[in-house]
Amino acid sequence: MNNLEFLIPIVLFVSIAWTIKAVLDARVRRQMVESNGSEDLVRSIMESEEARRRHGSLRWGIVLLALGVGFVAVDLQGVQEVTPGVIAALLVATGLGNLAYFLAARRLKG
Questions:
Q1: Is the Cβ–Cβ distance between 30 and 39 less than 8 Å?
Q2: Is-contact 94 63, C-beta < 8 A?
Q3: pTM for the full predicted model
């Protein structure tokens, strides 16, 4: 596990993609404001974007929490090798996290 050189290109790619997305989002927002569109329309779009971001954070938080619980469960079992059962346990934890997000999102909407 000492050879982590393969992470450098991955992190570089993710950083470049994230930067491009941020620049494009800012450009779209600026064009909306400059287009003299209806103030209610701009406000509605901004509020829906903010809600989408919050829901994305909620989803990742719940899924990663469930996946962490899955890793703890695998570790408590004393498993030292990757087996189909370990992979299945982590996939089940991920699926449960997605289902928990779905239920949380439904409760937040009303």
A1: no
A2: yes
A3: 0.61
